[in-house]
Amino acid sequence: MLTLNFTKFPALETERLILREHSPSDAETLFAMRTNETVMKYIDRERPKDLLEIETFITAFNRGFENGDNLAWVIALKENPDKMIGSIGYWRTDYGNHRAEIGYMLHPDYWRKGIISEALKRTIAFGFEEINLHTIKANINIENDASRKMLIKHGFVKEAHFKQDYYFRGQFLDSEIYGLLNPNH
């Protein structure tokens, strides 16, 4: 059976990036990103009300890692590893089926610089090689063309289009599901 049992948080590196554990010092940046309507345009989740809510969220992230429930990284540039510019991670891990959902977000100042692509490539490799996932899935808002193109670029294939399967802010929204199979299985 699949597990996320690492003795310590697995920090990852790419050519330009450090992918590290969330820390309490990330709270203000994460709050700013999660309340930024440009960042959250296609992320259909309630916005945090205050900094305390984000601090609790970070604690839950880290506890989720400790419990083996999720694995979420802060995206930071190597030249400034303490400054959070985005996040990427695995959620909704389905241990019995060796499947996890990947999600990501990035501050608009860093859009169109290949950062999510670089972080995605590294976390996909980690998911397949270190976690031993069989499938990585992504669930996107159907209007999010940038995310769709990013997933397809990295080999994801559209598996489903669900009609009005998600209720958010008084309306039912459609979802698209993308999947990527482990090429080593």
TrEMBL record:
Group of enzyme by EC: transferase
One annotated GO molecular function: acyltransferase activity
Top-level division of the source organism's lineage: Bacteria
Keywords for this protein: Acyltransferase, Transferase
EC number, as in UniProt: 2.3.-.-
SUPFAM superfamilies: Acyl-CoA N-acyltransferases (Nat) (SSF55729)
InterPro entries from the UniProt entry: Acyl_CoA_acyltransferase, GNAT_dom, N-acetyltransferase
PROSITE patterns: GNAT
Domain N-acetyltransferase as annotated: residue spans: 17-174
Protein name per the record: GNAT family N-acetyltransferase
Native species: Pedobacter jamesrossensis
Organism phylogeny: Bacteria, Pseudomonadati, Bacteroidota, Sphingobacteriia, Sphingobacteriales
